[in-house]
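Module 6 notes. Inverse folding takes a fixed backbone as the condition and produces residue identities as the prediction. Think of it as a translation problem where the source language is geometry and the target language is the twenty amino acids. Below is one complete input and output pair. Work through it position by position during the lab.
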């Protein structure tokens, strides 16, 4: 936007300045040339009288002295020609030195026509300026006076004026550039403050505001609207944080009471229940971790995950063990294929939640008597957790819609669920810097893969 403002303000001003400077430069050149022309015409008027007397008397010596002194003083060539066009008296001009243009002017003067006005001499012009006037005697042309002077003096004077004008234009343009940059900075200052405030809000500083008394009047309305929007966002987020904190506190008490009842009941059970009791304890501890994470997010005021190196094999093994009971009830087997270790730089709780959503979806649609394959791999610089069922799967055009919120295939409307499982997993993967990939493998079913950045142990 700064570039556009500079172009809008600077280009028209520069064009106007150049137009005015060009007109002034041409006027200066015309003025100097007019002054030189008037001086030459005045000198011609002086010599016309003397030339008339000398031509009448037939004595060139009468005027040659004055012609020589003029030529020496003004570095110009002046001469008198008779009626036939022959050089009659000269102050330095030799016969045959007249150029074609001067000779043509001499012919016109001897025919009784006065000299044309001298054209403007520009700095790049070459040659000399020549003025020719006829000498009349009782209305009859008896000769002509020629003054030929070098154009160096007016050319140098014009060039000097033009160089000074260019220097002034450069200084004015520099001042215009400075003024336009200051103006653009003044106009865009509220925009910069708006960017800074938005960046601050993005980083969790919800109290960031902009002073609404700065900048041009046109931007103050936008500033006030932004401040109102920021206040509304802060109010909504505060409500969310309060709700999350209250919900976390309210859930921790019944969860603690539930775990205490499990411990109390475990004392009256025989050893055959030890595995079930331990799994119940683990689920309770996992729910406690989720509540702690939720409470920490609410207190921090933002949803950043705590990243650490996590072995995905341990995560998958633990979560598969927790889901085996559900799988047995549904008549589905879970097969795990994993390397010795698969370290990833991520948040364990978020990965567990995403994996739970994916395997819950797989067990929900896997036919009884089939197998759900869970694989962990490290292909290159990322880790992959894949869950593949052997249900009816999805059509190719439905795959990209599978991760949308509340979307369900028309064939599965009678299956319990809300259509949020894969959508939640997708959001979690994006928050962790990973991605989710849904595909239809050969042999039927659906394959959902979680990709996470690999880490080092």
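Target side of the pair, the amino acids:
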């Amino acid at each position: 936007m700064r570039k556009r403002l500079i172009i809008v303000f600077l280009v028209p001003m520069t064009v106007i300045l150049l137009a005015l400077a060009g007109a002034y430069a041409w006027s200066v050149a015309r003025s100097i040339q007019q002054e030189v022309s008037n001086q030459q015409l005045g000198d011609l008027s002086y010599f016309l009288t003397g030339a008339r007397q000398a031509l009448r008397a037939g004595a060139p010596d009468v005027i040659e002295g004055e012609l020589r002194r003029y030529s020496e003083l003004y570095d110009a060539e002046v001469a008198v020609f008779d009626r036939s066009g022959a050089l009659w008296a000269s102050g330095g001009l030799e016969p045959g030195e007249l150029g074609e243009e001067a000779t043509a002017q001499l012919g016109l003067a001897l025919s009784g026509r006065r000299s044309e006005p001298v054209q403007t001499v520009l700095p790049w012009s070459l040659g000399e300026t020549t003025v020719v006037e006829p000498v009349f005697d009782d209305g009859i042309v008896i000769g002509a006076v020629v003054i030929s002077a070098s154009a160096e003096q007016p050319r140098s004077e014009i060039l000097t004026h033009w160089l000074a004008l260019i220097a002034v234009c450069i200084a004015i343009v520099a001042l215009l550039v400075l003024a336009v940059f200051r103006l653009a900075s003044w106009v865009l200052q509220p925009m910069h403050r708006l960017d800074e405030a938005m960046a601050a809000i993005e980083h969790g500083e919800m109290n960031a505001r902009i002073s609404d008394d700065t900048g041009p009047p046109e931007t103050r309305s936008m500033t006030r609207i932004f401040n109102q929007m920021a206040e509304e966002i802060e109010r909504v987020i505060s409500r969310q944080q309060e709700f999350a904190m209250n919900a976390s506190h309210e859930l921790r008490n019944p969860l603690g009471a539930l775990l205490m009842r499990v411990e109390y009941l475990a004392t009256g059970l025989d050893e055959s229940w030890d595995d079930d009791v331990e799994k119940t304890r683990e689920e309770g501890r996992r729910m406690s971790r989720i509540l702690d994470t939720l409470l920490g997010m609410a207190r921090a005021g933002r949803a950043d995950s705590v990243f650490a190196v996590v072995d995905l094999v341990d995560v998958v093994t633990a979560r598969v063990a927790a889901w085996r009971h559900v799988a047995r009830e549904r008549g589905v087997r879970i097969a795990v294929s994993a390397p010795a270790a698969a370290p990833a730089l991520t948040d364990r709780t978020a990965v567990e939640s995403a994996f739970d959503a994916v395997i819950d979806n797989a067990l929900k649609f896997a036919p009884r008597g089939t197998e759900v394959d869970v694989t962990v791999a490290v292909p290159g610089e990322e880790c992959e957790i894949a869950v593949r069922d052997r249900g009816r799967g999805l059509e190719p055009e439905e795959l990209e819609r599978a991760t949308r919120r509340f979307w369900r295939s028309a064939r599965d409307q009678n299956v319990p669920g809300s259509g949020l499982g894969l959508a939640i997993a997708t959001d979690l993967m994006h928050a962790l810097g990973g991605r989710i990939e849904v595909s239809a493998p050969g042999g039927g079913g659906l394959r959902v893969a979680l990709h996470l950045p690999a880490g080092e142990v």
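Reference fact for the lab report: The chain has three domains: 2-158, 203-304, 305-453.
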